[in-house]
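Hello,

Our lab assistant flagged a job as stuck in the queue for most of the afternoon. It eventually completed. Since we weren't sure the result was trustworthy after the delay, we are filing this so someone can double-check. Below is the sequence as submitted and the structure that was eventually returned. Let us know if re-running is recommended.
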Amino acid sequence: MTWGRWWKAINRVEAKLSALRAGLPGATLDSTVFRPATFIQRAIDQHGRALLLGVLLVILMLLAFLGHWRPTLVGVAAILSSLAAALLILHLRGETLNVMVLTGLAIAIGVLVDDAVVGVENITRRLRRARAEGDGRGPAAIVLDASLETHSVILFAALILLLAVVPVLFIEDVLGSFIRPLAVSYLLAVAASIVVALTVTPALSLLLLANAAPLRRGPALIPWLQRGYDRMLAWTVRRSGAIFAAAVVTALAGLAVLPLLRLSLLPSFKEPDLMIQLEAPSATSQPEMARITARIGREVEAIPGVRNFGAHFGRAVLGDQPVGINSATLWVSVDPSANYDATVAAVRQTLDGYPGVVHRVQTYTEESLRQVLTGSNDDMVVRLYGPDWPTLRRKAEDVRRAISGIAGVVGLHTERLVEAPQMEVEVDLARAERYGLTPGDVRRQAATLVNGIQAGSLYEGQKVFNVVVWSTPEARQSVTAIRNLLIDTPGGGHVRLADVADTRIAPALTSIHRESISDRIDVGFNVRGRDLGSVARDVRHALLSVEFPLEHRAVLLGEFEQRQEARQRTLIAAGVAVIGIFLLLQAAFRSWRLAALILLTWPAALAGGSLAALAGGGTLSLGSLAGFLAVAGLAARGGVMLIGHLQRLEEADGEPFGLGLVLRGSRERLAPILMTALGAGLVFVPFALSGNIPGFEILYPMAVVVLGGLATSTLVHLFVIPSLYARFGAGSAEPVLDLPPVAVAGPTGNA
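-- returned structure --
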């Protein structure tokens, strides 16, 4: 369902509820107790404001670097065209605009900005240089040459990005279905950006820039930045050993931080509507559940920050949840202006004051995701399989004791197997045979007399009454009366049920859970204060101390297990992708050495993201991983574009290899590098400054990682890669360190 149709449906429901109020005097209809639409609307509004602010900052940045509204308009139009094309393809595929699709598009923002910046900046610089040098060619030829100048490098960079996302497509099962829309939207946006960069950007540049007189003079900001950059780069190239050492230290720092980060793929969504599931002991009556629920409601409503409260227990006659009267669901709405974390903590503390009542405080989204990942409402589940129920019960208790002392495990409980008294009729085959009865005959007749069987229907006006064959109440009100029930024999006589079968009251399970043709029982728990990965490792170790009989086993389920199952396939696909990326780099640079060096700079480029993730909470969630993917894409593109530009200057423009080549090529790439970093970063600045508020559960950690990663990757592009090219760019060229100092020229001159 699209957003527009979904919102119209909500409005129709609200209208129907308003119409019902007139016909229900004395009844109160409150549709705000559980209303996820409020959270969604608020999140959309917050995202819209943050994106609008980010777009305005990007426009101001483009205007400052390009110096005129015309090239700025071309860049903005290219970015919006790429997004529009990706959204159109997603719409044609029947995709909905969900949080994973939006995250994929957010990852691609940096690539879209880079494609637009590279194309517009190169065309603008070429037009200005042609006018300054009196080039007699027409604007169309200059724009065409400028566009073709970078098309091969752009294609190589795009292929590298596509290969980087391939491992995501090999994640299967539920987790793969959850993440795959992110990868698809990212790939579509990157593909659309390539098409726009090769078609729309040159066309708009020719229309808006060909005869623009104000473009004769460039902005004053770029020459000022280039002069300072030339001095710093010349200093760093002559001290390349120290620069390489600093890059290695930075990379090691980023790698050392990774083990300190807690792994939690799915973020905790801060929805204002909490869903509390209660389960009291199986013998709890309806009046007692009403008393417990009402008392919890009074205490929860007294918590500062709680707006309203609602509850229901048991289930409706035609309800879809097979629960007993001892189960309840409570709905708590948190005031958007209240401290969310403090309010949720107070609600949990209140529920902890009811011993013997199992409770889970979570949002509807968290509950739905856990049901998909584990089939339970718990963070992790140890599921025991086996053919014998008494053995399963004993082993479940052994497992519970084994993991009860693990740090971070809270709410540990064994799945309750509710038993109820049941009448058992065991036919004596020898005695039944003397009367000509089969076991089936005895059981069917006894079940009909005790439980009844529908024989037809009676219609009276608009009413329908079932006609049921049943014994008299006196015949089924005690075990003795049931034993005296008369069973028809094939010869036309009767025999007492007690004469052909043993009848007794025995406990029986009200529901039996089976999976993979085996009975199963769960030991569930939640995780607090530790990451899922470390807790899962401790649980696995604890399970080794529990001995299981033949045909009995235990399996750990949960988000972490989903990730572990997908890890092997993903690592294999990632290894193949790295090899493919390395081959593409070699094809782009025509040098194995340069391809290997560029790959080795990626840990340093991504180190800032690791350090930022540690400073921003120390958790690796889906948003953080998406941020690393975004930075990795920009790091790959930046290195390819810079090395490709240096090689093009040497081959096409005849610039001799040396410090002058490195200074000139890096100087000309300074503006695109800074514009890409600032453009991608400014989009995420509003999300980072807003904090981890409701609605930003994915984009906030993503923004933190992107901003940190952009800082280190930009430094790598500006100083490390030029130093590497100066040292290793030519096979037997004279070392750059032995070259004499060169004078710094203007922004369009050569050194």
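-- support follow-up --
The delay was a queue issue, not a problem with the job. The result is valid. The chain has five domains: 1-30, 68-218, 223-267+590-751, 273-413+526-563, 420-509. The chain has a mean pLDDT of 80.
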